[in-house]
Amino acid sequence: MNRLVIQTISVLVFFLLWKAYVSGFDVSPLVLPPPEDVLHALVRLMQRDDTYYHIYTTLAECLGGFCIAVLVGTLLGQLLGRIAILDTIFKPFVIALQLTPKVALIPLFILWFGFGIESKIIISALLAFFPVFSNSYLGAKSVDSGLIEVFQVGKASTWQRFKLLVIPASLPYILTGMEMAIVLAIIGAVVSEFVAGSRGLGYLATIKLQDLEVDTLFAVVILLAMIGFVLYFTVGSLRKVVIPWHESAKSVKK
């Protein structure tokens, strides 16, 4: 409760400072509208039916890309982390892909997958992939060698070692990667809508900027931040369900 009160007060102080800055320095509403105008714009925005269509589109792109990134990143990270020859062959390609500016690849994905939701999902998955992969890879590499020897002495099968040792040891790392990935998945969806979107909250923000509806533009940004908070804390709460025994899950409970 103390943390919740402190966080609430900090948010209120932020908006008070925002209001004081706008009023004290006579800032133009075309540059930074006062917070009450943004709040009214947010209320108007949520009363429009098409807003929920844009929200659904962005969520579909974000969650679709996130699921692909988690599936492919976890699997590839485990394989490269446990099989040395695969690590030697494929890791340079994975690193090269991560070092490549993702925005530069957007025109290619639009060329290959079109202007529909498919290209946005792929872009979102690409941005979210590397945190999941790197943490899954690290988790596979971090399995205690002594425990591996115990399983070998007990003549456990490869599947038993994977199920009872590697996966439980890797899950804290994978969940950390997922927390970072959901944020990047949202960024990927919104950026792709900026560049080549005809729907979604990123596209809506672009339209409001072109129409100089700055208060509504800020309202869209706040709406995106709220969605991001919900998705981030939803993914973070998985620790209490998946790894309740781990110290990080205990700190979440507190």
Automatic annotation (TrEMBL):
Signal peptide: none annotated. It is found in: Cell membrane. CDD domains: TM_PBP2. Belongs to the binding-protein-dependent transport system permease family. Keywords: Cell membrane, Membrane, Transmembrane, Transmembrane helix, Transport. PANTHER family: ABC TRANSPORTER PERMEASE PROTEIN HI_0355-RELATED (PTHR30151:SF20), ALKANE SULFONATE ABC TRANSPORTER-RELATED, MEMBRANE SUBUNIT (PTHR30151). It is a multi-pass membrane protein. The chain crosses the membrane at residues 53-81, 93-115, 121-138, 171-196, 216-235. This is ABC transporter permease. GO terms for cellular component: plasma membrane. It comes from Alcaligenes pakistanensis. Residues 55-235 form the ABC transmembrane type-1 domain. Gene3D superfamilies: MetI-like (1.10.3720.10). It holds the Pfam family BPD_transp_1. SUPFAM superfamilies: MetI-like. GO terms for biological process: transmembrane transport.
